[in-house]
Design goal:
The complex is a heterodimer of chains A (231) and B (799). Chain A is α/β, with parallel strands linked by helices and 231 residues long. Chain A has one domain: P-loop containing nucleotide triphosphate hydrolases (Rossmann fold, 3-Layer(aba) Sandwich). The radius of gyration of chain A is 17 Å and the shape is globular. Chain A contains eight helices and ten strands. Chain B is of the alpha+beta class and 799 residues long. Chain B has three domains: 433 residues, no CATH class; 121 residues, no CATH class; 190 residues, no CATH class. Chain B has an eight-stranded mixed β-sheet. In chain B, helix 5 crosses helix 11, helix 9 packs antiparallel against helix 11 and helix 11 packs across helix 13. The chains are: A alpha/beta (231), B alpha+beta (799). The interface between A and B is medium-sized, with 40 and 29 residues. Chain B: It comes from Streptomyces morookaense (Streptoverticillium morookaense).
């Protein structure tokens, strides 16, 4: 934990892609078990913020501390190991390996951390049951609906019992009914396992599942709770 | 109130018009579809272009050979042998337009430097092709490549060889076979008819055409099929570049009402566009490569760009076949893909690949070849012409059959894969999901390897018929020179000049001639004529005086010289050839009763000069027809310049004296030409396959960029993905090589059986298959480098 008790804290994050500035001094902290929605219009830098917090992308400036450790000081291999062990990910689309079955997709993070196939698939199956997609476990991603695929992705994100789940527009490609269900299952499961969730979305309806909302605009993150307090 | 008139529904275009409309739409999509469409079209164009360029080069081979042959024939004269005093039937009388001609070929650092000595009889003697005026005595005209060599540091020793001549000009392309040919004409005033010198009044001599034997003809057919098949396979692969991206775009078309047939035709239009660009790119690349031909010399062969002109009908066939092939292949491959609206391309309902038609192709090939086995004894006896088209078609179908079988074999094998480490599982699942791309990637090399194995077996099977070793160890530095017969004094003087040459350690010089024993056809021996010192170097002779003769028996040798050619034996030496209608001249000689039997010593080349050894007074060399003076020398080992010094001495004695470096393999000219062609073609084909695989790998990685980024995001090790990619290659490569080895050995055996030849080495496929597998693995490993770059978090940004 960082001195203020947060699990992840980012300070003064700056990141530019060529002439485009994605983050311009963003600060954010997330506590264990907390569900934080990162909101903002398209191109505001919210996905880049998530990628920096997860150690996928190195910021140009600023620091990210996870559990008291500076991500910038970690090697690529160490950050990869951290993502395997402690983090889970859900993206909008294109995230399931098309040639693996849904069960094998869900078990993939466990196989990456060295679990035996049977053990990994048994644990993955429990999560698929919980997310109500056990019946499509032997299907490939191309054979299931978008909502089912997204639930498999949530199962995959949670199967390793991560301490943080990063979800980037997890319902962006779903209809509202399916989106609601996926969010319900994601947040309930995360709360049960005491996993923090960083939820990037531009939909207020999705953000409603969070404990706290952070708005990113022009590359700067503002905590909505603080704004409400100030008001 | 009149109801509004209903819009009349008119029938849309049908048949050809529908095809034209949809193909045109596809072409429009290919060029106006933005960056992605352009990239895909460019990839196809590059792939097809590479293949087309190679096909155009192959189509230029007949013209190239013909032009080279014509220029060679235009500058040739019906020249007799340098060594033998052969009389020609059509000897010219000296006149103002005649000249003397003598071939004066030499070698420099193992490269041939060919040329001729010329001596005009009168002012009207014509200049050789490509030369402005007949060189006068002491002058020479040289090819540009020889001129460059003579002016370079490397040409120092060659300059010494030609130090008696002043270069007065260069030979124009019309007088040369290739741009880098080392060739010259030197003017002389010392020529006299005989011993290789001929009087003629012009140039131009067509050597009698030596027809290809059935073995060599079969080799040509197989080599052509084997080299062209991978190119055809590659072109069919190239028109499928970017298929996945295209399918996504076609799905959008379905959404606005296009039916499945229409989307396929549009896809065919896109491929057609790529292939048309490819044709243009191929033509451009061909023209570019053509210009660079001047700078390429392969095994002493170079080609003028102007010689590289494709046969018009083959060029037209390529221009027609490539676009048609693009359309057919696209329609064929789309039959397994259900393109549906909403951007979903479902491969879910995968049908098992059908075996029957995949087996049918090689079966037809075998059916074409089988009847030929009955004629096999006829081919072997050279009496029956080969059924070219039947053999070509049978072979091609057998090889195409391998390409068709490979995806089925891969699918069947990988469907049995179950367990294993994660990289293996990822690879297995990927191959189970769709083994097509992986099988396609190795199909070219499978055909190439199968064909190469067959050719290798065929070469090995017929090699002994067309190559002979000169029986000397190539590691030894030995040279041999042959020249006209010299008197005892001349031979001794020439030998001394060679002995005094820098780098020459030992030399023996003698006059040599084969002799027959009348009435005994099998009794042939050789007569060596030299002074006592020379003969004592050739045999263990205690005492020797001029006039002595010895019967030299090789210790442990097979030939019983001692008894077969004992003193008192009559020998005859007949002219090797005589003009039609004239009797061969001959010289009869008896081994004197005083001849002593001696045992031989090895000469500097290691040979034992067994037979009759005679001193000059014992036999009149001037009466012996077709005798030669031979010099055998050993030069300092490892000193390549010593050989050139020896050649320089020979050239200073007479520019036409020919020198050979011992220790080589003598090949039949036709066999050697086919072997050269195969080598050049194999290099080009492997380069093409490598380039094609590189493009395919890059394209596959690009299509999986996002997935790779996601996998990296949740912590997948790069090594896991790297091994997964390697396994995805290794599995089809191994299966492809097994298929290629089986097919290649079968084809090779069948071809040899046609010629009634046995398989010399069943394991000859190992280096060929190893090379093929190594090419694929090398390109796959190189493909990991861009994959490493793609496995970055930036890949997620596209979202």
């Amino acid at each position: 934990m960082t001195p203020d008790g947060s699990l992840i804290s980012a300070a003064g994050l700056r990141k530019a892609y060529g002439p485009t500035t994605a983050l311009d001094g963003a600060d954010l902290s997330i506590h264990a078990g907390e569900v934080v929605a990162v909101m903002g219009p398209s191109g505001s830098g919210k996905s880049t913020l998530l990628h920096c917090l997860a150690g996928i992308v190195r910021p140009d400036a600023g620091t990210v501390h996870y559990d008291g450790r500076d991500l910038a000081a970690m090697s690529d291999a160490e950050r990869s190991a951290l993502r395997r062990r402690d983090f889970g990910f859900v993206f909008q689309f294109g995230q399931l390996v098309p040639e693996l079955t849904c069960l094998e997709n869900a078990a993939l993070p466990l196989r990456l951390t060295g679990h035996k196939r049977k053990d990994a698939e048994a644990r993955a199956l429990r999560w698929l049951e919980r997310l109500e997609v056990a019946d499509v476990r032997h299907h490939r991603p191309g054979q299931v609906s978008g909502g089912q695929g997204q639930r498999v992705a949530v199962a995959r994100a949670l199967v390793g019992e991560p301490r943080v789940v990063f979800a980037d527009e997890p319902t962006g490609a779903l209809d509202s009914l399916n989106g609601e269900r996926v969010m319900q299952l994601l947040t309930d499961s995360a709360r049960e396992t005491r996993a923090a969730v960083v939820l990037v979305t531009h939909e207020a309806r999705v953000a409603a599942y969070s404990d706290r909302e952070v708005v990113v605009r022009d590359g700067i993150a503002r905590d909505m709770a603080g704004m409400y307090d100030a008001a | 109130m009149t109801p509004p008139e209903r819009t009349r529904i008119t029938a849309g275009p049908t048949g050809v018009a529908v095809w034209a409309r949809d193909l045109a739409m596809g072409i429009r999509f290919a060029v106006t579809g933005g960056r992605e469409a352009w990239l895909r079209t460019a990839l196809t164009a590059v792939g097809v272009g590479l293949g087309v360029a190679l096909l155009m080069i192959a189509a230029s081979v007949p013209h190239m050979m013909s032009e080279r042959h014509q220029r060679g024939a235009a500058r040739a004269v019906d020249s007799p042998s340098v060594f033998f005093d052969k009389r020609l039937a059509h000897e010219q009388k000296p006149g103002s337009g005649t000249f003397l001609y003598k071939t004066a070929n030499t070698d420099y650092h193992d490269k041939p430097v060919n040329g001729a000595l010329l001596q005009a009889d009168g002012p009207s003697a014509p200049a050789p092709p490509g030369v402005g005026a007949m060189p006068r005595p002491g002058e020479m005209v040289v090819s540009p490549a020889l001129d460059d060599l003579l002016h370079s540091d490397n040409g120092k020793l060659l300059r010494e060889r030609f130090e008696g001549y002043r270069t007065v000009g260069t030979i124009a392309p019309s007088g040369l076979i290739g741009p880098n040919e080392l060739f010259y004409y030197a003017g002389s005033d010392k020529l006299a008819p005989g011993h290789g010198t001929i009087r003629v009044d012009g140039y131009g001599y067509e050597e009698p055409d030596v027809p290809l034997t059935p073995e060599l003809f079969l080799l040509v057919i197989i080599v052509c099929v084997v080299l062209l098949m991978p190119i055809a396979v590659f072109i069919t692969t190239a028109v499928r570049f970017g298929g996945d991206q295209r399918d996504q775009r076609l799905a959008a078309l379905r959404l606005v009402g296009a039916d499945a047939h229409m989307t396929r035709r549009v896809a065919a239009g896109e491929a057609l566009c790529g292939s048309l660009f490819g044709l243009s790119a191929g033509a451009g690349l061909f023209l570019l490569l053509r210009e660079f031909a001047t700078y390429v010399t392969i095994r002493d062969n170079s080609v003028f760009p102007s010689d590289i002109v494709p046969e018009p009908w083959i060029a037209a066939l390529i221009a027609l076949a490539v676009p048609v092939c693009a359309v057919v292949v696209t329609l064929f491959t789309l039959r397994r893909i259900a393109i549906e609206p909403l951007g979903v391309v479902r491969n879910a309902v995968t049908r098992r690949r059908r075996l029957w038609w995949r087996l049918l192709i090689p079966a037809v090939g075998i059916a074409l070849l089988l009847p030929l086995f009955r004629k096999a004894s006829g081919y072997a006896a050279h009496s029956v012409p080969l059924d070219t088209y039947q053999i070509g078609a049978g072979t091609a179908l057998l090889l195409v059959g391998l390409v068709a079988l490979l995806p089925w074999v891969v699918e069947i094998c990988v469907s049995r894969f179950r367990r294993g480490p994660l990289p293996w599982q990822l690879a297995a699942r990927r191959l189970q999901f769709d083994s097509g791309p992986a099988a396609r990637a190795v199909s070219g090399i499978t055909v190439a390897v199968a064909g190469a194995i067959a050719v290798q077996m065929l070469f090995a099977g017929v090699q002994s018929d067309y190559t002979t070793s000169d029986g000397h160890d190539p590691g030894h530095f030995q040279v041999r020179a042959s020249y006209r017969p010299g008197t005892a004094e001349e031979t001794s003087a020439w030998t001394e000049r060679f002995r005094a040459t820098k780098g020459v350690e030992a030399v023996t010089g003698y006059v040599e001639r084969y002799a027959d024993k009348p009435g005994d056809d099998a009794a042939v021996t050789s007569i060596h004529i030299g002074d006592c010192a020379t003969l004592q170097r050739m045999a263990h002779i205690d005492s020797c005086r001029d006039g002595d003769v010895f019967v030299a028996q090789e210790p442990g040798g097979d030939v019983d010289t001692e008894h077969r050619f004992a003193p008192g034996t009559r020998l005859t030496m007949k002219e090797y050839s005589a003009p039609a209608g004239q009797k061969k001249r001959g010289y009869d000689w008896m081994v004197p009763a005083s001849a002593r039997v001696v045992t031989t010593r090895p000469d500097p080349s290691g040979d034992h000069p067994f037979g009759i050894l005679a001193t000059p007074s014992a036999i009149d060399v001037t009466k012996i027809p077709d005798a030669t003076t031979t010099f055998v020398a050993q030069v300092t080992k490892g000193d390549l310049d010593a050989i050139e010094q020896f050649r320089n001495t020979a050239a200073h004695i007479d520019p036409s004296m020919r020198v050979w470096r011992l220790g080589g393999v003598v090949k039949d000219n036709n066999y050697a030409t086919i072997e050269k062609g195969l080598l050049i073609g194999a290099v080009a084909t492997l380069a093409l396959i490598g380039a094609g695989m590189a493009v395919t790998t890059a394209e596959q990685l690009r299509e999986r960029k996002r997935l790779l980024s996601v996998l990296v995001a949740f912590g997948t090790r790069r090594s896991t993905l790297g091994w997964s990619v390697l396994w995805q290659t290794i599995v089809p490569v191994v299966l492809g090589m097994i298929l290629a080895v089986g097919g290649g050995l079968g084809l090779g055996w069948a071809m040899l059986h046609l010629l009634r030849k046995g398989v010399r080495d069943w394991w000859s496929f190992v280096p060929v298959a190893g090379t093929g597998a190594a090419v694929i693995m090398a390109i796959t490993v190189l493909g990991l480098v861009p994959m490493w770059r793609l496995m970055r978090g930036d890949g997620l940004r596209s979202e």
